[in-house]
Design brief:
Strand content: 15-25%
Distance between the termini: 52 Å
Domain CheW-like: 582-711
Number of strands: 23
Shape: globular
Radius of gyration: 34 Å
CATH topology of the largest domain: Heat Shock Protein 90
CATH class of the largest domain: Alpha Beta
Structural class: alpha+beta
Keywords: ATP-binding, Chemotaxis, Kinase, Nucleotide-binding, Phosphoprotein, Transferase, Two-component regulatory system
InterPro entries: Bact_Chemotaxis_CheA, CheA-like_dim, CheA-like_homodim_sf, CheW-like_dom_sf, CheW-lke_dom, HATPase_C_sf, HATPase_dom, His_kinase_dom
Largest sheet: 6 strands, mixed
Protein name: Chemotaxis protein CheA
Strand order of the largest sheet: 15-19-20-18-17-16
Oligomer: single chain
CATH superfamily of the largest domain: Histidine kinase-like ATPase, C-terminal domain
Domain Histidine kinase: 373-580
């Protein structure tokens, strides 16, 4: 076994468990005292502790054990999860994440940095404060007692019901079930015990180191549930343990049935596992069923159980529902398979190469004029397109996980700045490319923090303006054609365009004679170093960030725009492509150069009969004036234009323009490849692709092109004009 790989698995699982712990802690603030949520936090801490022990990470084990002990007191209702304890455990999670990161980096936890060691000691001390000396439970019986092999009546008496299913590795891990029973008798008395032998193999197949047993136990004790549960602390990890208090009602057995493991089980086995039926009773019922079949009076086992008054009808109905649920889930599991992300990326890369190779084969067949080869390549093209359409969705992930990260951000920042702010999330099920999701974390973090610090007003200001005391920040995502829209909205004070303009003129970004539209004024916020904050805080006000946000969004071939209403709030709208890998494109030629336009942004194509049709950079189309860009002039192509040219009308986000080209080639499956640094200055290019003949075509970034074309204050319509057509 490769221990490095096992350690990587531990690190990945621990990071996932810490995220689950954080989500559960934040959930507790809305549903305090929820037992399931508290148990989820406890399980996460316990799993991390157990796994860390396998690698000798004693510091993590000891620290997590203290946290686990506090959680155990919460589970036994000795402590309540209040705001103070929640905040402490959020810090505990952060510290554990830092220790796990140090393990991942190969650091020695025995020699921590001063800051980390100080945090470790402080948190350990704060946790220990909640661990008041525990009072040992008084034994009910001081003398050893005889354990009776019980039956159904014993299990249903006025005792604790312990349902134990030991894991197969219990013995290998050094644990003795009989030792646990002896320990139980130190603070109580086992009244009845029913061994479950249904998993016991034949003698030839039996492994002496494997535990096959399960037990249903009636236990009399004055101890609380936490004390009884603590008996099984070291076997809980791979065992199934259920503890029902005295006077258990049928609804408690129903809940026990619902929490049984997802394993193929017959009805009798389900009832036996939840403790409502013993193995002996099940055997008797099965014999009665066989006898009925011999008399041609066969009855379902559930009916026999009810006739003999062994099990109540609601319990049987719940068991049947559980049985069907297991079958349905098993069917779903069989249709799913985990795939390593690197293998998936490799598949997408190969699909891209397949598209390029297919285009080459199609062009070769066309040049040869061979009809059968042309037909074969057409079939190949259709199959390649199907492969592409099947492969690309595999990279899609929901953005909800990224959105949920901001619950903690909003909580912590709102406390830091002294504001009451909530976070609303919608559209979390929206899917987009995994690589896009991974790179959206930092831009969204800045936008959310900015909305909280600059957008949401103070409590006094909100109350004076008749607003609710609690401000709200909303994250929303939705699809728009081949794009995804992400919006960050707040109900704060909004932006004052006149104040922004005054700051811009003060800094020399805008001259006194320039007249700007409101949208152009808002776009000044994305200028490097621009800020309207009067004071610098820990979060913002330094003029650093919004330009970086825009740059990061642009790197994803996306656009960002801002709208605001003074006194009502601000909305930041981000438009991103669904995928960065492969798109449907429309290929055009200008001179000897090829250009690809994303097909979803092509509205229509028309023939340009004469150059005189274009007046002052505009073309009349359908009764409206359409701005026009000549790609030949844009890229300084000095080739001679043909007598007849074409116009490709493109649109995006309410903006439209016409692109004058020499030739319309047609639709083209486009594998997007990144451009080198030499093209960094040309903002209207989104990448390049390889054509079937091996030549290169540049991919136009239509949103940026339209944005620059719509900027009236620019003396030159585009930021950069260089000769790329023949490079």
């Amino acid at each position: 076994m490769d221990m490095d790989e096992v350690l990587k698995t531990f690190i990945a699982e621990s990071q996932e468990l810490l995220l689950q712990m954080e989500d559960a802690l934040l959930q507790l603030e809305h549903t305090p005292g929820d037992a399931d949520t508290i148990n989820a936090i406890f399980r996460a801490a316990h799993t991390i502790k157990g796994s860390a022990g396998l690698f000798g990470l004693d510091l993590i084990v000891a620290f997590t054990h203290i946290a686990e002990s506090v959680l155990d007191r919460v589970r036994s209702n000795e402590l309540q999860f209040n705001a103070e304890l929640t905040a402490l455990f959020l810090q505990v999670g952060d510290h554990l994440a830092r220790l796990i990161a140090l393990v991942d980096a190969g650091a020695d936890l025995n020699t921590l940095e001063v800051e980390v060691q100080a945090t470790h000691e402080t948190l350990s001390e704060q946790l220990s404060y909640y661990l008041a000396p525990a009072t040992a439970a008084k034994p009910v019986a001081s003398q050893p007692t005889r354990i009776e092999r019980g039956n159904a009546s014993g299990l249903s008496a006025d005792h604790w019901h312990l349902s134990l299913r030991f894991g197969p590795d219990t013995l290998r891990n050094g644990m003795d079930p009989l030792g646990l029973f002896r320990y139980l008798n130190t603070f109580g008395r086992i009244v009845s015990i029913v061994p479950l032998l249904d998993r016991l193999p034949s003698a030839a197949e039996m492994d002496p180191e494997t535990c096959y047993l399960g037990f249903e136990i009636a236990f009399a004790s004055d101890a609380d549930k936490a004390t009884i549960d603590g008996t099984f602390e070291f076997v809980r990890e791979d065992s199934l343990i259920r503890i029902l208090p005295p006077h258990s009602k049928s609804d408690e057995y129903l809940e026990l049935i619902r929490t049984l493991p997802e394993e193929d089980m017959r009805l009798g086995e389900i009832l036996m596992r939840c403790g409502t039926l013993t193995a002996a009773e099940l055997q008797e019922v099965l014999l009665a069923q066989v006898e009925g079949q011999q008399r041609d009076e066969a009855q379902p086992i559930g009916q026999v159980l009810m006739e003999q008054s062994l099990v109540q009808a609601p319990v049987i109905a719940a068991a049947l529902q559980k049985q069907q649920q297991i079958k349905d889930n098993r069917s779903n599991e069989n249709s799913l398979i985990r795939v390593d992300a690197n293998k998936l990326d490799k598949l997408i890369d190969l699909v891209g190469e397949l598209i390029i190779a297919g285009a080459g084969a199609r062009m070769t067949a066309k040049n040869c004029g061979h009809s059968e080869m042309l037909e074969a390549t057409e079939l190949l093209s259709r199959l390649v397109e199907e492969v592409r359409d099947s492969a690309l969705p595999l990279r899609m992930v929901q953005i909800g996980a990224t959105f949920n990260r901001f619950q903690r951000v909003v909580r912590d920042v709102s406390k830091e700045i002294g504001k009451d702010i909530s976070l609303s999330i919608s559209g979390g099920e929206t899917e987009l490319d995994k690589s896009v999701v991974e790179r959206m974390g930092d831009p969204l973090t800045h936008l959310v923090r900015n909305a909280m610090d600059h957008g949401i007003e103070s409590l006094q200001t909100r109350q004076a303006n008749g607003k609710p005391a609690q401000g709200n920040v909303c994250l929303n995502a939705c699809h728009d054609g081949g794009n995804i829209i992400i919006e960050v909205t707040d109900d704060g004070g909004g932006l004052d365009p006149q104040r922004i303009l005054a700051k811009a003129r003060e800094r020399g970004l805008v001259s006194d004679s320039q007249t700007l539209t409101e949208q152009e004024i808002f776009n000044l916020i994305f200028e490097p170093g621009f800020s309207t904050a009067d004071q610098v805080s820990n979060l913002s006000g330094r003029g650093v960030g919004m330009d970086v946000v825009k740059r990061n969004i642009s790197a994803l071939r996306g656009t960002i725009e801002l709208s605001s209403t003074l006194g009502q709030g601000t909305r930041v709208r981000i438009r991103l492509p669904l995928t960065l890998a492969i798109i449907d494109g429309f290929l055009v030629n200008v001179g000897q150069a090829g250009y690809v336009i994303p097909l979803e942004q092509v509205e229509e194509c028309i023939e340009l009969h004469s150059d005189s049709a274009i007046t002052r950079g505009h073309l009349e189309l359908h009764g409206q004036m359409l701005p026009v860009v000549r790609l030949r002039e844009l890229f300084d192509d000095d080739s001679t234009p043909p007598r007849r040219e074409s116009v490709v009308v493109v649109q995006q986000g309410g903006l439209r323009a016409g692109l004058v080209v020499d030739q319309l080639v047609g639709e083209f499956q486009t594998v997007i490849k990144p451009l080198g640094k030499v093209f960094a200055a040309c903002r209207v290019l989104g990448g390049f692709t390889i054509l079937g003949d091996g030549s290169v075509a540049l991919i136009l970034d239509i949103p940026r092109l339209l944005t620059q074309l719509a900027a009236p204050r620019s003396a030159v319509p585009f930021e950069t004009k260089q000769s790329y057509a023949h490079e």
